């Protein structure tokens, strides 16, 4: 509710500009999926989709593919003709066809000159732009009367520290561009990149991910995963049993090198292979052991596929780009397949 109030104020302040327009924020990650891993950092992450302003389009260009689950894209900003369009009764300036004299007579900030590097949307410039927007807009938000806000800029996101008496919470705002009409986004910063390069078995992001170019936007399936867990909660006999299974699994193997993202991937696969009618309270131990056993089989095969990419088992309400089902699935355990010593270490940890 607070993020939506802030967004509406920001959109009102941007109504006469040529900047990206923030859409309704989407909660992502475990805090919004309904569970908390042992190592949860207490930060509520929200993804704010950005839509192009009038006269502009966003075109996604893939940068990398292959064995890493997290592909990266560049967001090319292109100009489109607005000669026949009006906004609030006023003729829109067309950056393609209006004369330079007219453009100079009615100067407006250009997205390409402010938030782009070359022709590509810059994640770091976008983050700084939003940081300044929040600072200048906060006092217009109704909740500012009861909440104190401190804004912390980050290179690829924006952190909001909110306090109200003894209550406090940290919200991290990520920025994204939707792939078509799907639930798959390219995002300014991934959760994997934020966690650094600690040793884990099964990584969806390469070491050194914090040093990717500012015009590279990693792909994320976080929105699709949240929707998947919401769908499952409505189908299983015991609403939160699958989340308890996930939470207990991550706690049991704390310190073994298996990240919570690996466990979440395993649980999502198991949820589509075991009938949902069997996720009852009386079968909790069996479901928990089945999850651990599924991981064991993946380790023996040295292969774990990401759940959303290319799967044919997604519920009907979750949309992926048309090309995704035909993609060659990456292997989250590729490092174990290439390194016998790492595989032996993972089997020992298991």
From TrEMBL:
Gene3D superfamilies: 1.10.1410.40. One of its GO terms (cellular component) is membrane. Coiled coil: none annotated. InterPro entries: MAB21L/cGLR. PANTHER family: CELL FATE DETERMINING PROTEIN MAB21-RELATED, INOSITOL 1,4,5-TRISPHOSPHATE RECEPTOR-INTERACTING PROTEIN-LIKE 1. This is IPIL1 protein.
């Amino acid at each position: 509710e607070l993020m939506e109030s802030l967004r509406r104020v920001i959109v009102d302040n941007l109504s006469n500009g040529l900047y990206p327009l923030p859409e309704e924020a989407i909660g992502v990650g475990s805090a919004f999926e309904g569970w908390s891993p042992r190592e949860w950092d207490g930060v509520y992450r929200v993804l704010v989709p950005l839509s192009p302003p009038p006269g502009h389009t966003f075109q996604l260009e893939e940068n990398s593919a292959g064995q890493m689950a997290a592909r990266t894209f560049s967001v090319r900003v292109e100009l489109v003709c607005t000669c026949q369009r009006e906004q609030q009764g006023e003729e829109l300036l067309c950056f393609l066809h209006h004369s330079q004299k007219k453009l100079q007579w009615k100067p407006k900030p250009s997205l390409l000159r402010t938030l782009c590097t070359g022709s590509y949307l810059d994640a770091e410039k976008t983050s700084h732009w939003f940081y300044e927007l929040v600072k200048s807009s906060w006092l217009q938000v109704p909740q500012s009367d009861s909440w104190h806000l401190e804004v912390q800029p980050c290179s690829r996101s924006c952190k909001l520290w909110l306090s109200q008496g003894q209550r406090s919470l940290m919200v991290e705002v990520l920025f994204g561009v939707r792939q078509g009409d799907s639930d798959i986004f390219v995002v300014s910063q991934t959760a994997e990149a934020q966690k650094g390069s600690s040793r884990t078995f099964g990584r969806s992001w390469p070491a050194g991910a914090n040093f990717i170019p500012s015009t590279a936007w990693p792909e994320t399936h976080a929105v699709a995963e949240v929707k998947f867990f919401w769908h499952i909660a409505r189908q299983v006999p015991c609403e939160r049993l699958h989340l308890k299974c996930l939470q207990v699994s991550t706690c049991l193997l704390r310190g073994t090198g298996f990240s919570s993202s690996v466990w979440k991937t395993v649980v999502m696969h198991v949820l589509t292979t075991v009938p949902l009618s069997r996720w009852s309270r009386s079968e909790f131990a069996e479901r928990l052991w089945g999850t651990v056993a599924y991981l064991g089989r993946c380790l023996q095969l040295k292969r774990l596929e990401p759940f959303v990419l290319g799967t044919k088992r997604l519920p009907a309400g979750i949309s992926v780009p048309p090309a995704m089902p035909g993609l060659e699935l990456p292997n989250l355990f590729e490092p174990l397949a290439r390194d016998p010593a790492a595989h032996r270490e993972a089997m020992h940890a298991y």
